[in-house]
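Quick one: structure for this chain?
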Amino acid sequence: MSDGIGVIGIDHRHCYTMVAHLVAAGARLVGWATDGAPGTLGGWEKRFPDAPRQSEAALLADPNVAIIVTAAVPSDRAAIAIRAMEAGKHVLSDKPAALTFEDLKIVHETSDQKGKIWAVDFSERFEVPGVTRATQLVADGAIGDVIDVTLLAPHRLNAPSRPDWFWDRARNGGILADIGSHQIDQVLHFAGAETGEILFAETACLAQPDFEDRGRIIMRAGRVTGTILVHWFTPAALPTWGDGRLFLTGTEGSIEVRKYIDPCGQTGTDHVILANGSHLERIQAADDPLPFFGAFLEGCRRGRMDDPGHPFRVMELALRAQEMAAC
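Got it. Here's what it folds into:
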């Protein structure tokens, strides 16, 4: 199978890292298509100057394109994925990858019928080396059995730079379907659970009446309780878009991952703090690998992912939380 990728929709900045990580893992960017001139266009052309802009139809018909990547407007992603799978392509979508249960159902049916992979880049796990290290520590038994996962995921609003679709709930999906899906993915991952249950969910529109800028979820996955806080209130003085933190409590220890910054602490990213019965250790994990992208390409080559249902279950839970909570 060719490792050629085509991109349809570059409306969200995640398009940059999704493609860069796939290329680093061995893929080849064949071409790209997008509607109009989104604010990401200049950054895209600077990063990938040699890739030609083409039509969606041309990319879907190109036998050298085996995978379609989409970071289009969220409300358009499911339809793009369906067209891509119907054309015989595997799909990697930015999150949120579907905004309604009906869209998710059709995506799932199309994936099954066409035998094509539909994956979602939950970048707050897949693109964070510190989470790779935390995963290994848990697998090695460093904190015993995980019993609690807590996630803080503040994001910077950058209101003047946001496109119209960002402010439209029907097009952005809501804060829990969007940012919350990252966190639900991590709860299931560290719980070692196929799925879970949303126990509580709420959103708030604090700064303006029609835009959800804070959300909370409490969920259960097997023995593990997951507690999630997401919001758009990263302080202006913080020199990064968000102070994302992951806290794992185990029966024999704990792990904290300060993903993007350690305020008033050490410089750099991916600070992993391990405490158990024998020692306390701070680990600098920024150089740890990002295994998802290579595993995704390998899955596309063989036509099967190890757990193809995971992104569907995550998005279903995110949509359930969003439905429960929308303000």
